[in-house]
Amino acid sequence: MAEYFDPQVSLAIDMIRYAKKIVVFTGAGISTDSGIPDFRSQGGLWEKYNPLKYANYNVFLKKPEFYWQLEQELQPIFSNAKPNKSHKLLVTLEKKGKLTAIITQNMDNFHQDAGSKVPIIEIHGNAHKAHCMDCGFIIKRSYITKRLKAGISVPKCSKCGGRIKTDVVLFNEPIAEDLLEEATKYAEQCDIFMVLGSSLSVFPANQIPLLARKAGAKLIFINRDPTYMDKYASLRLLGELGTYLPLVINEI
Question: Are 189 and 21 in contact (CB under 8 A)?
């Protein structure tokens, strides 16, 4: 591991070792090692599918077929993906009594699948959950998957024939206030707030680290690329999450 040596790794270890309440904030970068692409990066899915058309709430209400076309593309990617070592290292941090909550922008359910038991606030929803917008019936993901594989372009509710929507938060769709309040509560009560694999470019989620900092928490960023919020970090590790996170967590 000498080739990856960074003097700030030891600082991160010390900060986490002496912390009592840590909140982790995860973005797309934590799931790329699982085979889930970062949609926003060069060559990402948003270059092929304009999110303002295919993942836009207002468009979905009028022409849901665009969103379901996107789901057809994502189905084989998500169906074969599993949590990676970074997700599992957060379980290790939790077992050490350090982690109080996970706030995630991801919708892949990997934190739960990895075994995390702390509160997981999915501020952008969960692709494994769905409901009927007309009758409120809870739709199983397996039901949707079967219909997409059968070539049905717009799955309908099995109970009333109404509009199915996954619990993923689309563009121009408001985030549930209770989720933001819960995320803010944990952010303001921690002493270390770790940002893992997030560009911090999406509002209002990107304001949560600033709320933690304002309340007195130290910010640790571990990202592949710089963010415009790096100036607020107490410590920044710039590189692959799958490389840095084991160096930090395994030494606690």
Answer: yes
